[in-house]
Design a protein that fits this description.
The structure is a single chain. With about 260 residues, the chain is an alpha/beta fold. It is about 25% helix and about 25% strand. The strands form 3 sheets. An 8-stranded mixed sheet has the order 1-3-6-7-2-8-12-9, sandwiched between helices. Strands 4-5 form a two-stranded antiparallel ribbon. A two-stranded antiparallel sheet has the order 10-11. A hairpin with a 4-residue loop joins β6 and β7.
Length: about 260
């Protein structure tokens, strides 16, 4: 359920929705942070669900002392109606055994909101790639059948690589193939649900490992930007400048106390 944050503010029906998977390295969530901060997207509501661990904190995109006191919770919606763009940011893990309920709640909200398309930013364990996934770009995409007809040609023109199917029973039966996204959290479940519900959805993911995943997030958001053109490239042809949120200053905790030395 979308609960408006301010009276009279809602998400336009024909927006593109961007959201992250809660996956390895939190790459999707970090990429969404960059988009919200850089585009200065205003908060328009909250996605209320009992499937996420409860949390509350200060404004992660604070620009001054006054707006730093604004509270943020585990699932919030931001929107830029002029750009027909909406973003759902998730900040806490799904409660164990509630992944199915969470995806069903998301599907219900997506259908009610009539988004033009949904794009899920995700990640997958680099160490669990099969042999033919070890070469070339670390990015992959998936499209639901209802989106494939209008987008597949464009992504192939950008030389994007579709997620490969892998053997369901390695070494026993290599003919039966399936999509596998290890470390991708609810990515595969939501993708399957969107296929069944005929929702126009794309998954864009990066193979990565746990650690300092800021470079992975920057790489993922730059990759998505080649399709969506959220931010223009510089005149020199360099990658666009993404704004680092103020909350990232403590991404790895506080510094070491001087008393230790």
């Amino acid at each position: 359920m979308l609960v408006p944050a301010r009276t009279g503010v809602d998400v336009p029906a024909d927006c593109t929705l961007l959201l992250p998977a809660i996956s390895v390295g939190n790459v999707g969530q970090l990429a969404i942070d960059l988009i919200i901060a850089t585009l200065n997207m205003p908060k328009v509501g909250y996605f209320y669900t009992d499937c996420l661990l409860p949390m509350v904190g200060n404004n992660p995109y604070a620009t001054n002392e006054e707006n730093a006191k604004e509270l943020s919770i585990n699932a919030e919606v931001y929107a830029l109606p002029s750009s027909k763009l909406a973003v759902l940011q998730l900040r806490s893990p799904i409660i164990k055994k509630k992944s199915k309920d969470f995806c069903q709640a998301l599907i219900s909200w997506i259908k009610r909101s009539s988004f033009s398309k949904v794009i899920l930013l995700s990640s997958s364990h680099a160490y669990q790639r099969v042999d033919h996934q070890l070469f070339g770009t670390p990015f992959r995409y998936l499209l639901t059948p209802s989106l494939e007809g209008s987008v597949a040609g464009l992504l192939k023109g950008l030389e994007w690589k579709e997620m490969e199917k892998v053997s369901s029973y390695p070494g026993m039966n290599d003919e039966e193939k399936r999509i596998s996204i290890p470390g991708g959290g609810f990515t595969k479940r939501l993708y399957d649900d969107c296929c069944s519900e005929e929702i126009q959805m794309a998954v864009v993911l990066k193979f990565c490992s746990e650690g300092d995943n800021i470079p992975d997030a920057l790489a993922l958001v730059n990759h998505v930007n080649t399709w969506l053109q959220l931010l223009e490239h510089s005149d020199a042809g360099l990658s666009p400048e993404w704004k680092i949120p103020s909350s990232w200053r403590l991404l790895f905790g506080n510094g070491l106390p001087p008393a230790l030395f």
